[in-house]
Amino acid sequence: MKGTWWLARRQQRGLILALLILLVACAAWTVWQRAAMTGALPTTHPACKGWNGCDDPALRAVVERYTGPITALAIISTVFPALIGMFWGAPLLAREWENGTYRLTLSQEAGPLRLLAGRLGLAALYTAAGAAVLAALVAWWWAPIANTLTGPYWYDAAIFNGTGPASVTCALFGLAAGTLAGLLTRRTLPAMAATLATVAVPRLILQAVRPLWIAPQLRTSPGMTPKQLIGSAWSSGHWGYLTPSGGRADIMNCPDSGAELLRCMNSHGYTGRFYQAYPSSDFWPLQTIEAGIYLVLALALTALVIRRLRPPTATPAPADHDTPVAATAG
């Protein structure tokens, strides 16, 4: 196995170097920008979590100034799985057919599966490490202003997709998708296009169905009691009024507050208000669910690659029933 790992490192050293340069550049930029951001934060900012937590102009200015750069880094982490699949996974096997070296590779003593284990194993190792570093950089830079005033918030697409374990397993899924596409198409460019679609479609679907994985938290306030501040929670968009029977009326025909709200509620017989939201603690259950889905997809695609490369089992030649037994014995 040492020989296959040595060969894998030699063949992929350019990609490894490019990945290391990307990570070093992102890390240097993050350290520089985060230091400037934390130095500009007012001392009152820990008590201002949530979009309606406070109204501090100095804090708002800092948050608005650094939301764009943090989101940009999160987007790099978000598209990392597609980039890995396109530029590392797709050429991993397709290049053998394009260069005409696949016959020589498949005839090696190590065998195609051992060669695949060396190449794909090394690529998976660096892919997981790279995705983890990018996710950690995003989370570290974002932490001081996480879920504060105008954001960024934990449920924002760039933040959610660019941090947490799901970003790591999605990168492994991207690598497996690219490898399988390269094996099936045997051409790098078509494999890159197929990989982009294969990675993008599940990500968009999971983002759309994300609120369906777990039930939102129900928050109620009887009568004119002030509603609990939504803070850093993710609103489900489902809110309304409580009826005397304990039911919920999704009718949004009353003012937000004041005497007019009281008169409106009394005229309809409403006894209180409610809304549903996902608290920030739901970040980890949702991340765990999506990380598991991406991991299963990555393993399934890798199994397909192995099956396609597995040499056919030799079958014994059928006996010639037309030859007399005595003749074969003589």
Largest sheet: number of strands, sense, barrel closure = 4 strands, antiparallel
Number of helices in the DSSP assignment:
10
Structural class: alpha+beta
**Cα end-to-end separation:** 48 Å
> Quick one: overall form?
elongated
- Which H/E pattern describes the elements? HHHHHHHEEEHEHH
Taken as a percent bin, the fraction of beta residues is 5-15%
- Regarding quaternary structure, what we see is single chain
Fraction of residues in H or I helices: 55-70%
Low-confidence stretches: 322-330
Number of strands: 4
- Average pLDDT confidence is 85
User: Spatial order of the strands in the main sheet?
Assistant: 1-4-2-3
The rounded Rg comes to: 28 Å
Overview of the structural elements:
This is Transporter. The chain crosses the membrane at residues 70-94, 115-143, 163-184, 191-209, 283-306. It comes from Streptantibioticus silvisoli. Keywords: Membrane, Transmembrane, Transmembrane helix. The chain has helices spanning 2-40, 57-99, 102-106, 112-142, 157-162, 165-185, 188-209, 259-268, 283-309, 325-329, and strands at 217-222, 234-242, 248-249, 272-278. The chain is built from 10 helices and 4 strands, in the order αααααααβββαβαα. It starts with a helix and ends with a helix. It is elongated. The chain has a 4-stranded antiparallel beta sheet with strand order 1-4-2-3, with no helix packed on it.
